[in-house]
Design a protein that fits this description.
The protein is mostly beta strands. Helices cover about 5% and strands about 35% of the residues.
């Protein structure tokens, strides 16, 4: 309680929902902070990769304290997770360090992985899929001309993205999984979910 947004898409947000995708690691892993509309769940830390949404609806990605937040621009939400995967169009130097990018189920090198990046002209790119090494995930983002990116959650239970059809305003939303062949999150973010996620809504 006390948060502006709850554990599922609800209310007026339902009418404008375009897409949603998984958030980042659990706070207990110590890999980043989170704040939303002035309320801090975990303190933000300088140098970590951060997804920052501003009051005008724009979103940016960068290293907290240096690249983001933009000077003089009011932000309403920040989600951090590890150092940047890509910065200035270059991949992180420690892609070969498996433990640096989160604990994988069974210790595999290629679990399901996801990330959010931004291009030079401000387009957000979500990338996710099964059997991805950190290098493969970074290469996919570079192929989409991403200049900065932060890895989000990993492992098959938690990686999922959806687009939502509105059926002409009649009937329930129609979620379509972005990663073909897997339904992903139970409830597809339209029912309460135990982990954080991000939504894209039309104005």
């Amino acid at each position: 309680s006390g948060w502006r947004f709850g554990p599922s898409v609800a209310g007026s947000e339902m009418r404008h929902l375009l897409a949603a995708f998984n958030g980042a690691f659990k706070f207990s892993t110590g890999s980043g902070g989170f704040m939303s509309y002035g309320r801090v769940a975990v303190a933000l830390r300088n140098g970590l990769g951060s997804v920052v949404t501003y009051s005008d609806g724009g979103t940016d990605i960068g290293s907290w304290g240096s690249e983001v937040p933009a000077r003089g621009r009011r932000f309403v939400s920040v989600r951090q997770n590890l150092p940047l995967l890509i910065d200035n169009g270059r991949v992180a130097s420690d892609l070969g360090c498996l433990s640096c990018w989160g604990a994988t189920l069974g210790g595999v090198v290629d679990p399901a992985r996801s990330a959010l990046g931004i291009t030079a002209d401000g387009r957000l790119i979500w990338a996710g899929g099964e059997h991805l090494t950190v290098t493969a995930l970074a290469d996919a983002l570079l192929g989409a001309q991403v200049v900065r990116a932060v890895q989000l959650d990993i492992n098959p239970y938690w990686v999922a993205g959806y687009l939502y059809g509105h059926r002409g305003g009649k009937g329930p939303l129609a979620p379509v999984a972005v990663v073909a062949g897997r339904s992903g999150i139970a409830g597809q973010y339209l029912a309460p979910w135990s982990r954080d996620f991000l939504t894209v809504v039309a104005r």
